[in-house]
Amino acid sequence: MTILRRVAVLAAGVAVVLVAAAGSTASPGTALVDGIPQRGTVLGQKSAAVTLIQFEDLGCTHCKTYMQEAFPTIVRDYVRTGLVKVDFRGLGVVTRASEPALRYTLAASRQQKLWQVVALFYESQGSLNELATDKGVKRLVRGIPGIDPARLVADAKSLSVRRQANAHTAEAVRRNVPGTPWFFIKVGDARPKLVKPAAYDGEAFSAILDDALGR
User: Fold this and answer.
1) Whole-model pTM above 0.85?
2) How far is Cα 156 from Cα 48, in angstroms, rounded to an integer?
3) Residue 3 pLDDT > 70
4) How many angstroms separate the Cα of 177 from the Cα of each of 5, 8, 55?
5) Which of 57, 63, 152 is nearest to 113 (CA)?
């Protein structure tokens, strides 16, 4: 192989590495919610008549299955169309990293980025112990447009975020939530009603949401 050929091959290899690095922050989960309004813990149009309340733990493997198998259908068919909004309730008990991950997630809601951070934590759940730290979460969220990682870390330590996390726990106790994921449907101003999906897939949740919508 000539020197010029070697240089060309090396240059091509560097280009591939750079492209891979540039795409390393791409996330199916963050793309899923891109452009959808967020207000604190709520994803979706304010006018949506039906609210799906989901109790979850970022260290819970069943929650990850739900988010990967069912949530895309919910967002595509119901949230983006303005029919349903989803409200996050976080618990931090499954692993030692669950509680700090929850605080970082709730802190992200101050920047209207909660659902992007939720997606990234689930996608990297196997590394949750390393990512649910100040240094780790800054690295995790750096690819989210418009987020301020330093502010997120500061907000995660705030009294208001801790109180919000405690409020989610208190609500779970009040609603007799035995574990995660756990779901309630709220239609208009009615009291939330417990729903138990047959499976953590799009078909099961489509049936639940269609029923709530009167379809």
Assistant:
1) yes
2) 29
3) no
4) 64, 60, 8
5) 152
